[in-house]
Amino acid sequence: MVERKHLSLVDEVKELRGKMVEKLELEERMIRKMVEERVKEELEEVKAKMKEEMMMAAETLQKMAREMAKTSMQKVGITLLVVGTIACICGKLMG
């Protein structure tokens, strides 16, 4: 009788140990899934932020290009004015 009770308890312990291992494996899978989801969320946030920064950089680059073109045109205009004035003065001196 004692032997039978002992074997019964041993079987119960084995069964509980098996259930505990299953529970731990399930928890591990759930934790992995949660970590993967969080990593995906963070990756999406980083992608969105990078996209926003790239758009801002593109806008800034376009503004700089417009300003540089405007400045270049101003320099060309001033140069033409100076050359025209010199030509006028030379024309008056010669004529």
From TrEMBL:
Q: Where do the coiled-coil regions begin and end?
A: 24-67
Alphabetized, the UniProt keywords read: Coiled coil
The lineage's top-level taxon is Eukaryota
Q: What is this protein called?
A: Uncharacterized protein
Taxonomic lineage of the native organism: Eukaryota, Viridiplantae, Streptophyta, Embryophyta, Tracheophyta
